[in-house]
Design brief:
The protein is about 25% helix and about 20% strand. It is α+β, with helices and mostly antiparallel strands. The chain has a 6-stranded mixed β-sheet with strand order 9-8-5-6-7-12. A 3-stranded antiparallel β-sheet has the order 1-2-3, with no helix packed on it. A 3-stranded antiparallel β-sheet has the order 4-13-14, covered by helices on one side.
C-alpha cells in the first residue's frame, strides 16, 4: 500500500529535509554521518553512498548558501544531495518560483466565508488540489491529494471524505481537465457527470483552459504578483508533491541536448495540471459564499493546529 501526501510530516522542518534515495527491503549500514553502505542482492556489488554531510564543513548553512548560489534546483539535488529522481531538465517555473517566498512557514487556515476551489486532473494518476481565492486575488493552496492505481470513482469518494474532514460545511467549486466532458468508460459517463453525482454532487463545474501555454501562464501570473509584499500564490507546507514539482520535479526534460517544448509526464505533473486548470479560471468565478459576511482577511500563519492527516486503506496514494 502506498500513501501520498495524505501521510505528511506536520512540521516545516521535516518537510525541508531532503529524503535520501536508499534501497528498500535491504539492510543499510550507516558507518558515520553521510556515509552509508549496503550489498546489492542481485549482482552482489558492494555499494557505498558518500554524501556531502560526511565533511563537517559542508554541513554548515553558510557553505550550502555559498555553493548553491547560481545553481538550479535539479543540479543541486543531483550533485550535492544525491537525488537522482530530480531530474535532468529545467524546472517549468524556474524563473518565477521561490520556495522561501511562496511556501508558508506554518500551516494555513481556511476561510469558511469563501468557497473551496478543487482543481482536478483525471486518468491513471488522478490528482486534486484544494485552494481558496482570497481578496486582492491571493490564491491560497491548502491541501493536495494524489492517487495511484485507483479508479476515478474510488478517488472521488476519497476526496469527498477528506473534503468533509478538512473543510466541514464548506461550499466547493470544481475546476476540471477539459477532457472531463469526454467519456470515462464503457457506460458512457463522463468525468463531469461523475462529479455531479454521488458522493460529491458538484453543482458548479468549470472546464479549465485547454491550451497548455495558457494554463501555465495562468500559474505564472499568480507567481509573479504580490500583494503588499505578500505572495499572490501561497502554498501550505503539507502540499509535498506540488512543492517538489515547483522545486524541479515538474520540468522540461532534455532530448539530445535540447529542452523539450512540453513538460514531462511524471509523478509531479498531475497535481500541477490540476493547479493549472484551477488557476486558468478561478479569477472568473464568484468564490464567495455570502457576500454580506465576507471580510478582506489574510490567511492565518499559525495558530490552530490542523487535524491529523488520515491514513487511507487500499491502493490510494503516491
Amino acid at each position: 500500500m502506498k500513501i501520498t501526501s495524505l501521510d505528511l510530516p506536520s512540521s516545516v522542518e521535516a518537510l525541508g529535509t531532503v529524503r535520501e534515495e536508499l534501497p528498500e527491503a535491504i539492510n543499510v549500514d550507516e558507518i558515520m554521518t553521510g556515509l552509508k553502505c549496503w550489498e546489492n542482492p542481485i549482482n552482489r556489488f558492494f555499494v557505498i553512498r558518500l554524501h556531502r554531510s560526511a565533511d563537517p564543513k559542508k554541513r554548515l548553512k553558510e557553505w550550502e548558501e555559498k555553493t548553491r548560489a547560481g545553481m538550479d534546483t535539479a543540479n543541486w539535488l543531483r550533485e550535492y544531495e544525491l537525488v537522482w529522481e530530480a531530474l535532468n531538465g529545467r524546472a517549468v517555473y524556474q524563473d518565477e518560483w521561490s520556495h522561501d517566498f511562496h511556501v508558508s512557514k506554518t500551516s494555513l487556515g481556511w476561510n469558511p466565508n469563501l468557497a473551496i476551489g478543487r482543481g482536478w486532473d483525471f486518468g491513471l494518476y488522478p490528482a486534486c488540489i484544494f485552494c481558496q481565492l482570497f481578496p486582492h486575488s491571493r490564491l491560497i493552496v491548502i491541501r493536495e491529494c494524489i492517487g495511484e492505481d485507483i479508479d476515478t470513482e474510488r478517488f472521488m469518494y476519497e476526496v469527498d471524505r477528506l473534503s468533509a474532514e478538512w473543510f466541514p460545511n464548506a461550499r466547493f467549486v470544481e475546476f476540471v481537465d477539459p477532457t472531463g466532458k469526454n467519456r470515462v468508460g464503457t457506460d458512457g459517463r463522463t468525468y463531469t457527470q461523475l462529479l455531479a453525482r454521488k458522493p460529491l454532487r458538484a453543482k458548479k463545474i468549470y472546464l479549465g483552459a485547454n491550451a497548455p501555454v495558457a494554463r501555465r501562464t495562468a500559474v505564472i501570473d499568480f507567481l509573479k504578483e504580490n500583494v503588499k509584499g505578500q505572495p499572490a500564490l501561497l502554498v501550505d507546507p503539507s502540499c509535498e508533491m506540488l512543492v517538489k514539482g515547483f522545486n524541479g520535479g515538474y520540468m522540461y526534460a532534455y532530448l539530445q541536448g535540447t529542452l523539450k517544448t512540453k513538460p514531462e509526464k511524471n509523478i509531479f505533473s498531475h497535481i500541477h495540471d490540476a493547479l493549472q486548470y484551477l488557476c486558468s479560471k478561478v479569477r472568473t468565478v464568484d468564490m464567495k459564499v455570502n457576500l454580506a459576511t465576507v471580510k478582506p482577511v489574510e490567511p492565518r500563519f499559525g495558530g490552530r493546529t490542523p487535524s491529523p492527516i488520515p491514513q487511507v486503506e487500499g491502493t490510494y496514494g503516491r
